[in-house]
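Hi F.,

I've been meaning to write this up properly since the lab meeting, where we talked about keeping a consistent format for the predictions we share between groups. The idea is simple: the sequence comes first, exactly as it goes in, then the structure tokens exactly as they come out, then a line or two of notes. No screenshots and no reformatting. I'm using this chain as the first example so we have something concrete to point to.
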Amino acid sequence: MAFLWRPEAETRDPATRPWFTRLDDDAREAARRLTKIVPRPFHQLGVEASRRVRFPVLPRGPEVFDVRDVEIEVAGGVIEARIYRPADEIGLPMLVYFHGGGFFLGSIGGVDALCRGLAVRSGCVVVSVGYRLAPEHPFPVPADDCLAAALWAAGHAGDWGADPARVALGGDSAGATLAVSTAIGLHGLGAAAPSCLLLAYPAVDLTFSAPSWTEFADAPLITTEDARWTWEMYLGEHGADDPRAVPNRADDLSFLPPTLVLTAEVDVLRDDAAAFANRLAGEGVTARHRRYPGVFHGFFTELGLYRRTGLAVAESAGFLRQVHRMP
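Output, unedited:
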């Protein structure tokens, strides 16, 4: 019988949870630390207290030929981006990357190590996008920011030694959702399609009906109630039926490019993300799903913390190299 979430279970040692024994040793230790760093689920902490949480600093990622911060003009403001060039070459592919954080947390700094790793291992110029966050900026603002950033990146690719005809989109969690949103938005504009999509545990559905929503309802980092809360903040009054906000609401996704979907074994989003990959394959998209055992939500960005993260980044880099026909 699946474990059912109960509010009184919030402060219990994670070692007492049914999913704990399924974690790798490094993930178990991280789950214990998270219990101390985040004593209550985010939806109970609230926006401001959640933003004050300070997670351990990750090891610095690999050295990159050039890293610089830029500003991108978007409707109603300016957003930040960070550009990673792996080499002093021209014609390199590009990856536009959107960080996760439930649409209300996260920053380009939080994925710095990951973006360094992806740039070095994939050979891509990586553009990490700091879109505006909910609840101050609900949908469609973050989606519009990401779409504008992708168009900007393609338009300025030559400035960074990148090929505008080989621009991939990627992200983790909410950022992966925004990567799909951006691909849908590009299609709607009649713009060039991305070369591929790299999606780490995307949030794509609002039904909360898949088994993982119950089985891992109290899992580390994001609980089922956290997910409901963050969706509500992000969607505002207009997003629930819009495919750019909730990708599974799209009638047709056959236009999407080759897609790699990564999931964690212990994650409320696991089953929805896997079903999304299956849906894409059923609609003729070249889509592959890889579930990583022994880890929970958020592992993909934690380069240097989990053994599985290195494997996932290596697989992602291999996927990008294959799509872009790089040695």
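Notes:
The chain has one domain: 18-43+55-323.
The longest strand covers residues 162-172.

If this format works for you, I'll send the rest the same way.

G.
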